[in-house]
Design a protein that fits this description.
With about 325 residues, the protein is an alpha/beta fold. About 40% of the residues lie in helices and about 20% in strands. The protein has two domains: about 100 residues, no CATH class; about 200 residues, Rossmann fold, CATH 3.40.50. A six-stranded mixed sheet has the order 5-4-3-6-7-10, with helices on both faces. A three-stranded antiparallel sheet has the order 1-2-11. A two-stranded antiparallel ribbon has the order 8-9. Helix 6 packs parallel to helix 7.
């Protein structure tokens, strides 16, 4: 026998004080009756089989409690083998960690908004593998493809703008690194979610997207930022903003045109980041889950134990019914 909830076995220790309480209660009740009626009158008022009946009722009640406690532990015996097949899509999220992601046109800033989006995506995933790629002037795999979403969250929490010393926004390099991170030559079940403000500074993004398309990768871009532009905080001067050599404040703008071209090149789509999960649902639920073919990650056999708690509940209800029956039944008349 196995138990699905073995911790509830500790509640069986509560039966010891229950036993003492029931014994004490019967004795106390008997003492009060004797004190009230006296022994001569007690033998005339109390039916002969009353004490035996009360003892039987106490046993039935105790057995009912015992059986219900055992049922709460989810007892199991007997099993069968079940074949389990894990199917899903490989999803790589490429996150821009360049200094432009510190712009605060999206609160608290673009990078934090993007990380929250990825965290929400982890809550939506339904058996798909996920990996993380961080990029700025260069890129690297922060988290390889995994089904362990908790591990992915740990890698996500470590991402910031100081993760990559080479500054800039090399979207083309990020796409190439992400394509390699899929670690398979199959031209299916590959989705790349690109989260960036789109300020590509290398001009290689479209060429990389074309190459990714040949490998079966579909790119879904999420634009972070606004078209008007926002100044970048200057970490060396609190309260100030970054300036160019002419002393002008540098504004970082969302380049939607580039992101749209990248997505369309691979048969993916583009959305602008908004408050809430509408953008993620559009990409993951409406695009990736419905339009990308799933593949089998792993297949295994698992031993499935049969739940037997219902038998203990049934037996406990029988004893409760017997206890109720004895309570309602009239005692035998004194001869």
């Amino acid at each position: 026998m196995r138990f699905g909830e073995p911790l509830y076995l500790y509640f069986l220790w509560s039966l010891i004080p229950i036993i003492f309480l029931m014994i004490w209660g019967r004795k106390k009740k008997q003492q009060l009756i004797v004190k009230f009626c006296g022994d001569p009158l007690l033998s005339k008022l109390i039916y002969p089989d009353l004490e035996k009946r009360q003892r039987t009722q106490a046993i039935f009640l105790f057995l009912a409690i015992l059986l219900f406690l055992i049922a709460s532990t989810s007892p199991r015996w007997g099993y069968h083998w079940e074949d389990l097949h894990q199917r899903g899509v490989d999803v790589i999220v490429a996150l821009d960690v360049s200094n432009s992601m510190l712009a605060e046109d999206m609160k608290p800033n673009r990078l934090e908004r993007a990380k929250r989006k990825i965290s929400d995506l982890l809550d939506m995933l339904e058996g798909d593998r996920i990996g993380l790629v961080a990029f700025a002037g260069t890129s690297f795999v922060q988290c390889p493809l995994t089904l362990d979403y908790n591990a992915a969250r740990l890698f996500l929490s470590a991402i910031d703008t100081e993760l990559i010393p080479v500054q800039g926004t090399a979207i083309g390099n990020a796409i190439k690194t992400s394509a390699k991170a899929f670690r398979t030559q199959e031209k299916k079940s590959k989705a790349l979610i690109l989260i960036t403000d789109g300020e590509d500074q290398t001009g290689q993004a479209l060429a990389a997207a074309k190459e990714a398309q040949k490998q079966g990768v579909k790119i879904y871009a999420i634009g972070i930022g606004g078209e008007i532009g926002a100044p970048l905080p200057n970490p060396s001067n609190q309260g100030g903003f970054r300036k160019n050599q002419q002393g002008e404040i540098i504004l970082s703008k969302l380049d939607e045109t580039t992101l749209q071209k990248i997505a369309l090149e691979t048969g993916g789509s583009y959305v602008r980041s908004v408050t809430g999960d509408i953008d993620l649902k559009t990409i993951y639920a409406d695009q990736i889950k419905k339009r990308i073919e799933k593949k089998e990650f792993k297949s295994e056999r698992r031993k499935i134990w049969q739940e037997r708690f219902q038998w203990f509940i049934f037996a406990g209800l029988i004893f409760l019914t017997l206890d109720t029956y004895l309570t309602a039944r009239k005692p035998k008349a004194r001869p």
